[in-house]
Design brief:
single chain, about 300 residues, alpha+beta, Glucose Permease (Domain IIA), 3 domains, two-stranded antiparallel sheet, 14 strands
């Protein structure tokens, strides 16, 4: 029978005391070493996994931060597209008015100037709304915007060349507000406040303070001033090229027939004379004797 081999571990205390001897068989020592090596391998594995998770976590936080930044950029882009679309809409409204004034397009062929845009603006809005769904859709609205800008640039360039040759006509076109206030009744069909019946309103009613100045909206000649039961104190100005403007319900008339006026000259004061419920200005624009919507000529912002 073979003799068993042992390992002896002698422990000598630092201070005075008896030394201790621990005897371990070879088999037990192999088991302990195997356990220790296995533990060390597992510990190293978990240690490596821990550091790997830290690196992954750091990358995740970095990607999360980049994602937040991208969201901010997208939000900024959406806001810019929205603002740019609104500006393009404003330019389109001006272009419509100018086209009508220049006679390059008839009012019947266009939507009412200053009221709203066509399908192009809806497409831009749709494209901008789709932006949040996918980053890949960002190119579409930009291309649409650039195309609209190019079209407007070409149209406005044509209009600029036209109006440079038509300065006199432009000076005689009623393009400004006749007084400061807000519109209480627009051009078109409405319920008459006195009769309760549907009637056609040939101009716009601008409510404002009594005595506010009323100005000529274009260069012209005062054709007539009168005071009647319906319109009260009234001024009629001829601007040439078939255009004329009429101002009703004035408190005072500050011009006389035959007098030449320039755009912006004060011609009267707001009143409530004639058939009027309160102080306001009823303002009409006529083209070749027919009333047209004054808003299609006004270029100033309200």
């Amino acid at each position: 029978m073979a003799e068993k081999k042992y390992l002896s571990l002698i422990i000598i205390p630092h201070k005075r005391g008896k030394a201790k001897t621990i005897t371990i068989s070879h088999q037990a020592s192999r088991i302990i070493i195997s356990f220790f090596v296995t533990f060390l391998v597992i510990f190293i594995y978990f240690l490596a996994d821990y550091f790997s998770m830290n690196i992954t976590r750091a990358k995740f936080n970095q990607l999360k931060s980049e994602n937040q930044e991208q969201k901010k950029v997208i939000a900024s882009y959406e806001s810019s597209i929205k603002q740019l679309t609104a500006k393009i809409q404003t330019f389109e409204n001006y272009a419509r008015k100018l086209n009508i004034m220049a006679g390059l397009r008839s009012p019947e062929a266009l939507k009412e100037a200053g009221v709203g845009s066509g399908n192009e603006a809806e497409e831009l809005s749709t494209g901008q709304a789709n932006l949040t769904g996918s980053l890949r859709s960002t190119n579409w609205p930009l291309n649409q915007v650039h195309r609209k800008v190019e079209q407007l640039e070409q149209n406005l360039s044509t209009l600029l060349n036209f109006f440079e040759q038509q300065r006199t006509r432009l000076a005689q076109t009623p393009t400004i507000w006749p007084t400061v206030g807000f519109i209480t009744s627009g051009y078109g069909w409405r319920i008459d406040p006195f009769t309760g019946k549907q009637t056609f309103h040939k101009g716009i009613d601008i409510a404002t303070n009594l005595g506010n100045p009323v100005v000529a909206t274009a260069d012209g000649v005062v054709v007539e001033t009168r005071n009647d039961r319906i319109g009260g104190k009234t001024i009629l100005i001829s601007h040439g090229a078939g255009l004329s403007t009429i101002f009703y319900h004035l408190d005072k008339i500050l011009v006389r027939p035959g007098q030449k006026v320039k755009r912006g000259d004060i011609i009267g004061l707001v009143g409530k004379t004639g058939k009027a419920l309160g102080p306001h200005l009823h303002y009409e624009v006529h083209l070749n004797g027919k009333a047209v919507n004054p808003l299609q000529y006004i270029l100033e912002e309200e």
